[in-house]
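Q: Sequence in, structure out?
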Amino acid sequence: MTLTELQSAQALERLAIIRPHFEEGVCQTEIARVHQISLRTVQRWVQAYREEGFMGLGTKARSDAGHCRGLPEELVLLVEGLAVQALLVEGLAVQALRRPLTSIHALVRQVADEQDWPQPSYAQVYRIVQQMPKDLVTLGQEGAAAYREAFDLLYRREARCANAIWQADHCQLRCYFLNEQGKAQMPLLTAIEDDYSRGLAGYRLSWSAPSSALTALTLREAISVKEDPRWPIHGVPECLYTDHGSDFTSKHLEAVAADLKMSLIFSQVGRPRGRGKMERFFLTVREEVLANLPGYAPKVEGHIRWQREIEAEARKAACLTLGEFDEIFRTWVLETYATRIHTETHAAPHARWLSSGVIPVLPRNEMQLDKLLVQPRRRRVVHQEGITLLGAWYMHELLAGHVKEAVIIRYDPMDLTAIRVYEGEKEERFLCQASCVERGGQAVSVQEIVTERTKRRKAVGKALRERKQVVARYASPEQLAERALEKVPVALGPVERQEEGSAQEVESVVELSEVSKKQSKIRWYDDD
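A: Exactly. Output:
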């Protein structure tokens, strides 16, 4: 048993009154006379101190504290049940409204008359309702979702070091920008944040809907070493914490995570809890970046008409392209957000990531990261002009050795200047990175194509000569004729040897000689 602060103060006051009795032998009657309290009270305090010590001097709470004395338990439960009962309002959405206290009191009095219970007063009903637990009221009036949001115990994940936990999430930006067709549209921001430093590991802006492919592309950018020296965050994280939606769960992403030795952690289905750090980052983006740009359309709850008017005005004001906003956002991330002291970690994100002393784990080779790129379902055939993708041709000098062969390609939808080409049926091998000049890729010179074409022709010619030599060694025209003669049936019966021979024998010899001299139909073509 422990005493509250008020009980401890009360016990100290009583101990000061009875202390002379134990230390100086002052009688209890004298103590009662001096302090003008009853002798029985002093005797009770002395006895409690002797039996229980200092704890015995505190006022003990009643065993029935919090209960309405004189009222049946069923009546109390009835009052509490009516207090948490949800009321339906006609013409509006279903809302949980608290029943008026006067209505509860009147209904309880009627039930008490029917059940021969004592009549509760209005004050008693009021005390019962006021003493109800808040979690019970929330669950009864607002439902299970509101109860979980307010009272469920949460496990707050805290990374022990940099790259231990990364969080990924999508957010539709409430700001209109001009797309490729010149129409105003709201883009999607996919971001990956390092939980330890609160630094942004990678992000991607796109017009498409949330998808696992978009998540994979953003993860590839986050893991890769950045070209900008101001952005140090990179490496493979130990685990990636995401939502349980279809835009994060896919066999492809799971296979890549297993290959990178990175674990995936998903929030509970239908309960996206524990990702408030990403939500806070998106809120900061809205307040510090989007709110200062033309085309910003804040969301207004409960005012549909007003919301439509705001969005219509924002579409008219939109004048920035997605590429221009990308430059604005990247500058804000690297120069403002990453260098500003975070209120929770008390350090700048990039400085905290660097000071953690972690050595980033990098993929074994670039092929591991290429698996995060978009891969068409079917292989592409290498034509004499190269590989076609989305109406454009991609060329590389190494493709000259794989004309009319099926290859695997992977690409980044936001960077179509080049594609990654792989060969092999069972085991993929990186072949080259083909570029498209029409889309700003690196041009391939005629000399490089001629060199590779000549190299391939020589290789094919050498292979043809090797096969010619093997055929000449084991299947020359003379050898074929000899094998044909072996298959001719021998005449039945013994043949007497004559000096000149009969006319029939001479005929057969002539026929056989003609067979042996018959020309072969095999034709070889020159290497040229």
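The chain has four domains: 5-57, 73-151, 165-355, 373-444.
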